[in-house]
UniProtKB/TrEMBL annotation:
Keywords assigned: Signal
Residues of the NodB homology domain: 74-335
A Pfam family hit: Polysacc_deac_1
Listed GO CC annotations: extracellular region
Database matches in PANTHER family: POLY-BETA-1,6-N-ACETYL-D-GLUCOSAMINE N-DEACETYLASE (PTHR34216:SF3), PTHR34216
Gene3D superfamilies assigned to the protein according to its UniProt record, in alphabetical order: Glycoside hydrolase/deacetylase (3.20.20.370)
Protein's cellular compartments: Secreted
PROSITE patterns, per database record: NODB
Phylogenetic placement of the source organism: Bacteria, Pseudomonadati, Bacteroidota, Sphingobacteriia, Sphingobacteriales
GO molecular function: hydrolase activity, acting on carbon-nitrogen (but not peptide) bonds
Protein name listed in UniProt: Polysaccharide deacetylase
Top-level taxon of origin: Bacteria
SUPFAM superfamilies: Glycoside hydrolase/deacetylase (SSF88713)
CDD domains hit by this protein: CE4_DAC_u2_5s (cd10971)
Length: 335
């Protein structure tokens, strides 16, 4: 059941940080099965938040953490992960119309090198067929194919360990995601994901990437128009799985990109890929002057010093998502 955000206890100093990913007209898209927020529902949420909340900027949140000054009552902050073209073509015009700032967290490699992140390949593999058991069967075959070379356990070992339903996904989907995102070694994950991407999606990767992600020019336009652009790493790796050298590279490459597109590096922020933080990640963000970082933990955030790099968020699925004709008509006029 979705959380009624008007029933959440919002102390004066708290802030509801909302997390978005895909925002698109799902029914008329090439991949209507993608796990995203339907565009009319997004418009409805923005109108709801604008009416019932004080939508603040990232800079206002940083100021509150730095100084201890209270935020307005029922403050909210909107965040958008992964640099999708949806955020420029769909989200940006709506936020601009309302005078609302969004904070957009960018995985640099996808933007600069026109590659599709593994996590997104997995999303579109899943969205390409309603029969998730077909993908599971493919994985059973592929694990057997590579079993000797990579000294793998039998298929049932991985399935029994990983196939656990979550808040939003079936056990089959969780198995596919966890196996291909983290359980297998990177070299094998890349091979298997690529084979499945070719089978189920069938587009050249650089072409697909240019359709999926924003460009640097679009990011600069958003940055110059008052949106906040933050770090989501370079390769979108799990930060809590990296050694110090590799995490330093992830952060430094990402920071260099932010600087190049005009971000005020005195107020740069981060979003942990997959919510993957640990003590090392927090320490390295702090040493590089990062002002705050958001997680995927589900809660209302308290903007205090000890939570600076551990700010929780609500998923868009936790907010109202009802469509209505007034909102749909407004959207058509607004853009």
């Amino acid at each position: 059941m979705a959380i009624r955000i008007d029933q959440i206890k919002n102390m004066k100093s708290n802030v509801t940080i909302v997390m978005y990913h895909y925002v698109r007209d799902l029914a008329n898209s090439r991949y209507p099965e993608i796990k995203g927020l339907d565009l009319p529902c997004f418009v409805n949420q923005i109108e709801y938040l604008n009416k019932h909340y004080n939508v603040i900027t990232t800079e206002e949140l940083i100021h509150s953490i730095d100084t201890g000054e209270s935020l307005p009552p029922k403050s909210a902050l909107l965040t958008f992960d992964d640099g999708y073209i949806d955020h420029y073509t769909n989200v940006f015009p709506i936020l601009s119309n309302y005078g609302i700032q969004g904070s957009f967290y960018i995985p640099v490699k996808a933007i600069k090198e026109h590659v599709v992140l593994d996590v997104n390949k997995i999303h579109f593999i899943l969205a390409s067929t309603p029969d998730k058991l077909m993908i599971v069967k493919d994985l059973e075959h592929l694990l057997e194919k590579y079993r000797t070379t990579y000294q793998l356990y039998p298929f049932d070992h991985y399935y029994d360990m990983l196939a656990k339903a979550s808040r939003y996904d079936s056990k089959e989907v969780i198995f596919i995601k966890r196996l291909l995102q983290v359980e297998l070694i990177e070299e094998l994950r890349l091979k298997i994901v690529e084979e499945l991407f070719v089978k189920y999606v069938g587009m050249e990767e650089h072409v697909f990437a240019k359709e999926l992600y924003m460009t640097e020019d679009q990011l600069i336009h958003m940055q110059n128009s008052g949106m906040h652009i933050g770090s989501h790493g370079f390769n979108h790796y799990w930060w809590n799985h990296l050694n110090e050298k590799d995490l330093a590279s992830e952060l430094d490459l990402s920071m260099s990109f932010l600087h190049d597109i005009g971000v005020d590096m005195k107020n740069w922020t981060a979003c942990y890929p997959y919510g993957s933080f640990d003590e090392q990640a927090v320490r390295m963000l702090s040493s590089r002057g990062c002002k705050m970082a958001v997680t995927t933990q589900v809660d209302v955030a308290e903007p205090i010093e000890k939570m600076r790099f551990l700010l929780p968020r609500l998923d868009t699925n936790d907010l109202p998502k009802e469509k209505n004709s007034t909102i749909n008509d407004w959207y058509k006029k607004a853009i």
